[in-house]
Specification:
Blueprint (H helix, E strand, L loop, with lengths): L27 E5 L35 H5 L27 H15 L9 H6 L4 H24 L4 E7 L4 E9 L4 E15 L1 H9 L11 E14 L6 E12 L5 E12 L5 H16 L5 H12 L1 E2 L4 E2 L3 E8 L4 H13 L1 H12 L6 H20 L2 H7 L6 H4 L20 H10 L7
Antiparallel strand pairs: 1-2, 2-3, 3-4, 4-5, 5-6, 6-7, 7-10, 8-9
Helix pairs in contact: 4-8, 4-9, 6-9
Length: 440
């Protein structure tokens, strides 16, 4: 299957992509409202969306591959029609005098990059030099994803813009963190990407071995490259759900030069109150994405999601699930990449209609209080159980602000709080304790 990355319209966030990685400097920030984010629509209808292949059950896989969220910070999403970047190879030409094909390639990549929230982490000359490499394809995919998600969120919010923070990791690589806070609709929305490389620590290598990857190190070190896009979105209205999604790619090279690769990620929904129609829409959209790549994928990854986002000490899930997978390395790199694209494409159509539907709902102080208590559960899972967060907090060179970007601005813990029987609060707790099949 041959795909081409969809082009974004020229964005206002940066200029001058042609010459390479110039643009926003390390750690630089700016406030940016993405293209098309002038105002918020007031549509309340539900719409369905897009597409998703790979395998492997259990909670084991959320270790080092999920740790990309830690190395990166957090930040995956969707758009109309996205896929693999087909880039024209350079033609031979005298130094300083690019040939026609090279100029066309440069223009195409530069146009695409102008729609991103910031310049690529990798220098454009390097990206052009390896057009067919999976690291190039994945970096372009996550940059497109970030820009499209920020655009969709800004349009729905209609108020605040995104703060764009481009950072570097001294051990290798860097990332772009985009955060919207105190908007009209969203209390906090973060969409981040990272592209990092270097050597894994002994602890990281140990984690990989615990997951069955017996890799050969040199002096206790292992070369790696990792990249991904991740997002957590917390709306203000307690009837609008929180969403998290993350899609990532990982490569390691053993001491003998042997390379291993895998993909991971997922999308899950955390509502404060149960809305049956919303749950069916969300899961059905993800199922349609998975079904394009195999009928066994959605049930496998839905169960994996329910098992992973489990708050053991509370005996309940963080939310109503979605899909989750890790360590996907078959049937082929290209096929798994296409699956990841499909998963990303499904996020916006799965989520944005729900926010539009509920952003203007009326709510009581008691309902806002329940939202704050459920946010407390979200924090508990992320800090106590999420392996990506924990790995990132203990990884040298990781960026703490980006790692903790997933946490809400506000949350609450009350001693021995228990909802009344047969209440709406008790209804969502029942679902969190006993996951349901939403699509059959």
């Amino acid at each position: 299957m041959a795909f081409r990355l969809a082009r974004l319209g020229a964005g206002p966030c940066w200029r001058g992509a042609r010459g390479g990685g110039a643009g926003l400097g390390a750690g630089s920030r700016r406030l940016c409202r993405p293209p098309g984010a002038a105002g918020a629509e007031r549509s309340r209808g539900l719409g369905l969306g897009a597409a998703a292949a790979g395998g492997g059950p259990g909670r084991r896989g959320a270790g080092l591959a999920a740790a990309l969220a830690g190395l990166a910070g957090l930040a995956a999403a969707a758009w109309g029609h996205v896929a693999r970047a087909d880039m024209v190879p350079r033609s031979a030409s005298p130094p300083g005098r690019p040939g026609e094909k090279e100029r066309e390639e440069e223009d195409e990549l530069a146009r695409r990059c102008r729609g991103f929230m910031a310049p690529p982490v990798t220098d454009l000359r390097e990206l052009r030099g390896r057009p067919g490499d999976m690291k190039t394809q994945m970096e372009l995919l996550i940059l497109e994803t970030q820009a499209q998600v920020c655009r969709a969120l800004a349009q729905v919010d209609g108020g605040a813009g995104f703060s764009v923070d481009r950072w570097e990791r001294k051990e290798g690589g860097g990332g772009i963190s985009c955060v919207l806070q105190d908007g009209h609709v969203f209390e906090k929305a973060g969409v981040s990407i990272s592209v990092v490389h270097g050597h894994l620590s002994e602890e990281a290598v140990k984690q990989m071995r615990n997951r069955g990857k017996n890799l050969k190190t040199k002096d206790g070190k292992l070369s790696f490259s990792a990249m991904g896009v991740s997002s957590v979105i917390h709306p203000k209205n307690p009837h609008a759900p929180t969403i998290h999604f993350n899609y990532r790619y990982f490569e390691v090279e053993e001491a003998d030069g042997n390379k291993h690769w895998w993909f991971g990620g997922g999308t899950d929904l955390t509502p404060t109150y149960l809305n049956q129609e919303d749950a069916v829409h969300f899961h059905r959209t993800l199922k349609e994405a998975c079904d394009r790549h195999g009928p066994d994928l959605y049930p496998k990854f839905k169960k994996w999601c329910d098992d992973y986002f489990y708050i053991v000490h509370r005996g309940e899930r963080r939310g109503i699930g979605g899909i989750f997978f890790d360590d996907l390395d078959s049937p082929s790199k290209e096929e798994v990449f296409q699956f990841v694209q499909s998963c990303a494409q499904a996020v916006v159509p799965a989520y944005i209609p729900l926010v539009k539907k509920h952003r203007d709902d009326s709510f009581t102080p008691q309902e806002k209080l329940w939202q704050q208590l459920r946010r407390g559960r979200y924090v508990e899972f992320n800090l106590l159980y999420d392996r990506g967060t924990k790995f990132g907090l203990f990884t040298p060179g990781s960026r703490i602000e980006s790692i903790l970007m997933s946490l809400p601005l506000t949350a609450r813990w009350e001693y021995m709080h228990s909802p009344s029987a047969n209440s709406k609060e008790a209804e969502i707790l029942e679902v969190l304790r006993h996951p349901r099949d939403w699509v059959h």
